[in-house]
Automatic annotation (TrEMBL):
The keyword Nucleotide-binding applies. Binds 1 divalent metal cation per subunit. NCBIfam families: surE. This is 5'-nucleotidase SurE. One of its GO terms (cellular component) is cytoplasm.
Length: 257
């Protein structure tokens, strides 16, 4: 790509989150940035979609009273210019593992772009359980921003998106002894959710976070979670979900119906 790319930036933490400001500032050195992001926190909304959303001007771009998927559609179809790539993040917290992909608003923004045929990158920062609730700062996102900017600058021309619809990028903890290495990974399959009833409520708990905090994960080499815990930048090349595959057994069942 000879001209500077048009880049649509969004997130799910809200337009005032420090991660999106760090990302937008970094990407401004790579291309022309348009920010279209939720007006407030829309974490873990998946690909939830609205019928109508309110839009307001913001110092970074446009604030949308809606979800990350709303922001992508609005940015692509109404608020332009039409981008060469969509980048979501940097998320406050990692988006690791197969089971997380459908929950994450950050990843879902990238998936939404993929259905439009636009290359996309979801970018996240690993934080421990103790970090949540504490403020993050722009410098915390330096590794995530550097990795994301590198991919935006080079992946389009390298043909990466001829084989992947989007990339899921996760940077190691900002306080970790990071290797500086970027590792191509696949999403981990490990899953350990628990639930406990307490009177009229049920508490849900993702026990994988406990293992990540301790660095004692079951995931093998080559997986996203293992790479990040080991201090690497994880990049998973992924395709948009819900594609169909030929299935002889289902064909046989349908024929007997």
């Amino acid at each position: 790509m000879t001209d500077a790319p048009e880049i649509l930036v969004t997130n799910d933490d809200g337009i005032d989150a420090p991660g999106i400001r760090a990302l937008a500032d970094g990407l401004a050195d790579v291309g022309n940035v348009t920010v279209v992001a939720p007006a407030d926190d829309k974490s873990a909304t998946g690909r939830a979609m609205s019928r109508e959303v309110r839009v307001e001007d913001h110092e970074l771009g446009y604030a949308i009273e809606g979800t990350p998927s709303d922001c992508v559609v609005a940015g692509l179809e109404a608020l332009g210019p039409y981008p060469d790539v969509v980048v979501a993040g940097v998320n406050e917290g990692a988006n690791l593992g197969m089971y997380v992909l459908g929950r994450s608003g950050t990843v879902s923004a990238a998936v939404e772009a993929a259905f439009f045929g636009v290359p996309a990158i979801a970018s996240s920062l690993f934080l421990t359980s103790e970090d949540f609730g504490e403020p993050t700062h722009p410098e915390d996102y330096e590794t995530a921003v550097d990795a994301t900017c590198y991919l935006v600058e080079h992946a389009l021309d390298a043909g990466v998106f001829e084989h992947a619809d989007y990339l899921n990028v996760n940077a190691p903890h900002p306080g970790a002894d990071a290797s500086g290495e970027m590792v191509v990974t696949r999403p981990s399959h490990g899953y350990d959710m628990g639930a406990e009833r307490n009177g009229e409520t049920v508490t849900l708990h993702d026990r994988m976070w406990d293992l990540m905090d301790a660095g004692e994960i079951p995931d093998p080499e080559g997986t996203d979670r293992r790479a990040v815990v080991d201090g690497h930048v994880s990049v998973s090349p992924l395709t948009a979900p819900h594609t169909t595959e030929h299935h002889d057994e289902l064909d046989a069942l349908a024929a007997r119906f």
